[in-house]
Amino acid sequence: MTELPHPNPLPSTSAGDNCFFALQPTSAAREAIAQFQNAAAAKHGFKSYRVAPANLHITLLHLSQAGPATASILRAACDAASSVAVAPFPLRFDRVKSCPHLSPQKPFVLCGQTDLGGAKEFQRLLGGALREAGVPAKRSSNPHLTLFWEPPPLVAEYAIPAIGWNAHEFV
After folding, report:
1. Exposed (0-12), middle (13-18) or buried (19+): which is 93, by Cβ within 10 Å?
2. How far is residue 145's CA from residue 20's CA, in Å, rounded to a whole number?
């Protein structure tokens, strides 16, 4: 059984940084997602913020605290994360939708009805390890991958050809 490796080395932070644990798509999945972004932009007339391929990710947990994460919090978070051992798991996104959000821009996201159980379980295990280590963390919503940030109107959920990959590491 191959295990998901933990983040290394320790990241550096500064004021305003948003520290979180995430899963990233493989190169092939990034290419498929970028092609879908092109089609979605044309279909829906998206012109605001498109998430660049290098920044695509599935947020699992945010480190929640006031101010930037300290080196000791980051070290504790990375140490706790390294204690979570799971086998690689499949991720499959077969739906897209806009999500209500407090900001004026609304996220347009890939989501899935099936094959996200591994991500949810990993999110649960990682959250438990962080809590046990005393690291303040806030669970992200259901696993999803943000493609765009756009102003309303919101796009209702609809099915797409599945985009997927096997999660082998987290950051």
Report:
1. buried
2. 14
Burial 42-68, CB ≥16 within 10 A → b, else e: eeeebeeebbeeeebbbbbbbbeeeeb
Enter the pTM of the model.
0.85
What tokens were used for 11?
A: 């990241």
Mean pLDDT, each 10-residue run in order, the chain (171 residues)? 49 60 95 97 94 94 75 91 93 94 88 86 94 89 91 94 92 85
CA–CA gap between residue 112 and residue 15 (Å, rounded): 34
Cα atoms found within 13 Å of the Cα of residue 11, Cβ hemisphere only: 17
Round to whole Å and give the CA distance between 13 and 162: 35
